[in-house]
Automatic annotation (TrEMBL):
PANTHER family from the UniProt entry: DISEASE RESISTANCE PROTEIN RP, DISEASE RESISTANCE RPP8-LIKE PROTEIN 3-RELATED
Gene3D superfamilies the UniProt entry points to: Ribonuclease Inhibitor (3.80.10.10), Winged helix-like DNA-binding domain superfamily/Winged helix DNA-binding domain (1.10.10.10)
Coiled coil region boundaries: none
GO biological process, one term: defense response to other organism
Domain called Disease resistance protein winged helix: residue spans: 8-74
Domain Disease resistance R13L4/SHOC-2-like LRR: 126-302
Taxonomy of the source species: Eukaryota, Viridiplantae, Streptophyta, Embryophyta, Tracheophyta
Organism, scientific name: Arabidopsis lyrata
This protein's UniProt keywords: Plant defense, Repeat
Domain of life: Eukaryota
Protein name from the UniProt record: Resistance candidate RPP8-like protein
Length: 304
């Protein structure tokens, strides 16, 4: 868990929600809820003075954590020694890119540059984790086959990545080992139906940065292992999603009664946080009736 913090930039405030899901996707813990298990691990790191953590003012639970500068140096040094992670600061020169291409590291963090060259490198076949952070220029993925070079991925975080034509390549469906997929702030307006092949996902964030409505095929219902689901803020008018089979969900954000049946919530009895956008087709009374079995709910946000 400590070495995983080497992924992040200096002085970076690490959101514990994402961190816990990275850990869970890597198989670090099982059993109880991801949040509870993650907090146990993080509190142990804090107790040992390896990590600084601060609580969220609203919920009084751990919200962010950071590494002190000196501990970060220790973390980076140990991660390098264990070949745990490779941090790639991609320059503009293709020759330098080839020189920096990873060989044995199972985890990659890409910090800047047009790094789609790196993603297609032949030595990346065994990569388990790819996280994109702190980009300083446009980060494009132009090749539709790029994901075919990363068949064993468990974690894929594509923060702020741009895709040609706003289309997520259908080759994403080949990453059948994925447990974590984030398209947060990525420029994506069209999701392929092949995304339904990702049946082992625990975490899926579709809160993209595009201003136009997002095309979401009705395949999310097949991801029955999901614990965290963030839907797009705006979807095409004809979008109809069936989510009733997602009975393991613990956190569901941006659920829209315009695109989803409110009765699907009746089966999501493990939900701990829920945000709902109410449309004209659903009254507050209907919503209240669908929430009656959510006895584990801790946070509820309504948007009228």
């Amino acid at each position: 868990c400590f070495l995983y913090l080497a992924h992040f930039l200096e002085d970076y405030k690490i959101g514990v929600g994402s961190l816990f899901n990275y850990w869970a996707a890597e198989g670090i813990f099982d059993g109880s809820t991801i949040r509870d298990s993650g907090e146990d691990y993080l509190e142990e790191l804090v107790r040992r003075n390896l990590v600084i953590a601060e609580k969220n003012n609203l919920r009084l639970r751990l919200g962010y954590c950071q590494l002190h500068d000196m501990m970060r140096e220790v973390c980076l040094s140990k991660a390098k020694e264990e070949n745990f992670l490779q941090i790639i600061k991609v320059p503009t020169s293709t020759s330098t890119i080839n020189a920096q291409s990873p060989s044995r590291s199972r985890r990659l963090t890409i910090l800047r540059g047009k790094a789609f060259h790196i993603l297609g490198h032949k030595y990346n076949k065994k990569v388990r984790s790819l996280i994109v952070l702190g980009l300083e220029e446009d980060f494009w993925i132009q090749s539709a086959s790029v994901f075919q070079n990363l068949p064993l991925l468990r974690v894929l975080d594509l923060f702020h990545v741009k895709f040609k034509g706003g289309k997520l390549p259908s080759s994403i469906g080949g990453l059948i080992h994925l447990r974590f997929l984030s398209l947060y702030n990525a420029e994506v307006s069209h999701l392929p139906s092949s995304i339904g092949n990702l049946k082992l996902l625990l975490y899926l964030n579709l809160r993209v940065a595009i201003e136009e409505p997002v095309h979401v095929p009705n395949v999310l219902k097949e991801m029955i292992e999901l614990r965290y689901l963030f839907l797009p803020l705006d979807m095409h008018d004809k979008t109809e999603l069936e989510l009733g089979d997602l009975v393991n969900l613990e956190h569901l954000w941006f659920f829209s009664t315009q695109h989803c049946s409110v009765t699907d919530l009746l089966r999501m009895t493990k939900l701990r946080s829920l945000s709902v956008s109410l449309s004209e087709r659903c009254t507050f009374e209907t919503l209240s009736s669908s929430l009656r079995k959510l006895r584990n709910l801790e946070s509820l946000y309504l948007d009228f």
